[in-house]
Design a protein that fits this description.
single chain; about 325 residues; 9-stranded mixed beta sheet; 15 strands; about 35% helix; globular
Length: about 325
């Protein structure tokens, strides 16, 4: 595999996870089963996944001068990620996320997540202006929506001007400007984010989904300037729509979902790995689905992200 270079600009966080047999209602207290802490944040998850799949990854973000920040920075270094563009903020805490997992016998695990941005929202345009001269060194740029929108827009503009493809994972859901969309090579909403962005709900039941609705939602985003629209649909897999047509990639069957946290990050990072290596859309999608399937089969966000060897064995 080519040692491709990927820049990930995004959120860095510590995940605090609790499992319970039932989500609490308003005013209700329930007993949990397990608690754990693990590195997370959409930006960091995607960076670590791409690194474990063999990419040369640079991570751009901001941490606090606190113990969580120290711990996260140490993790990124151990993963072989270039951390030279990770900043520290002495006035704000490192971002964190509270994750509640509902585990009921015989049912797929469900999650609810509250993200506290902390230093992730303290990144400024001045912090990234250096990329205007250096972003051309990368094969791909990956962005999400857990850092300020104006920072994402500036990075996407710099990359577009240098001919570097940009992938935006539009999570958590937020309105997007035509200026940002016109600078994207790829956008990867899930069905809920696609509905928020386009007003079109994509119905799906188990492994089946409404392809007409998916294509209609993709058309809205393509008309606003995005070249490739990749919509993830959970158990129904994913669909990619571009000038070449519609590519459907079913989810991997017979995989027990233990924890869906970071599955989307895993999928996006694996897809970007394939594309930046020069693979075609079909192979990149299949590779991404296998990678995400391995991720949901284990607990935790970053701890569940597989390496290239594991994905290769799984694909066989």
């Amino acid at each position: 595999m080519k040692k491709n270079k990927i820049l990930v600009a995004g959120s860095l966080a510590m995940d605090l996870s609790a499992t319970t047999s039932v989500f609490p209602d308003e005013g209700q207290t329930v007993l949990g089963n397990e608690f754990s802490m693990a590195p997370g944040g959409k930006g960091a998850n995607q960076a670590v996944q791409a690194s474990r799949l063999g990419c040369d990854v640079t991570l751009l973000g901001k941490l606090g001068n606190d113990s969580n920040g120290d711990q996260l920075l140490s993790v990124y270094k151990k993963e072989g990620i270039d951390v030279s563009h990770i900043l520290r903020d002495p006035f704000s805490p490192t971002g964190c996320a509270f994750i509640i997992l509902e585990q009921r016998p015989g049912e797929s695990v469900k999650n609810r997540i509250i993200v506290l941005p902390g230093t992730n929202m303290k990144i400024t345009k001045d912090d990234v202006v250096f990329l205007k001269d250096t972003i051309g060194e990368y094969d791909m740029v990956m962005l999400q929506l857990e850092i300020p929108m104006d920072v994402n827009e500036l990075i996407a503009q710099y990359a577009f001007e240098k001919g570097v493809p940009v992938m935006l994972n539009p999570a958590p859901s937020a309105p997007l400007s035509d200026n940002l969309l016109s600078h994207l090579a790829f956008i990867s909403p899930n069905e809920h984010e696609a509905a928020d962005l386009t007003g079109i709900k994509i119905e799906h039941n188990g492994n089946e989904f409404n392809i007409v609705q998916a294509e209609a939602a993709a058309k809205v985003l393509r008309n606003r300037g995005v070249k490739n629209v990749l919509i993830t649909l959970g158990s129904a897999g994913a669909v990619l729509v571009n000038d070449s047509g519609t590519f459907v990639s079913p989810a991997v069957k017979n995989v027990k979902a233990v924890d869906p946290t970071a599955a989307g990050d895993s999928f996006v990072a694996a897809f970007c790995t394939g594309i930046s290596c020069g693979w075609d859309f079909k192979e990149s999608l299949e590779f991404a689905n296998c990678t995400a399937a391995l991720t949901v089969s284990k607990k935790g966000a970053m701890p569940s992200l597989p390496d290239l060897k594991a994905v290769k064995q799984f694909r066989k």
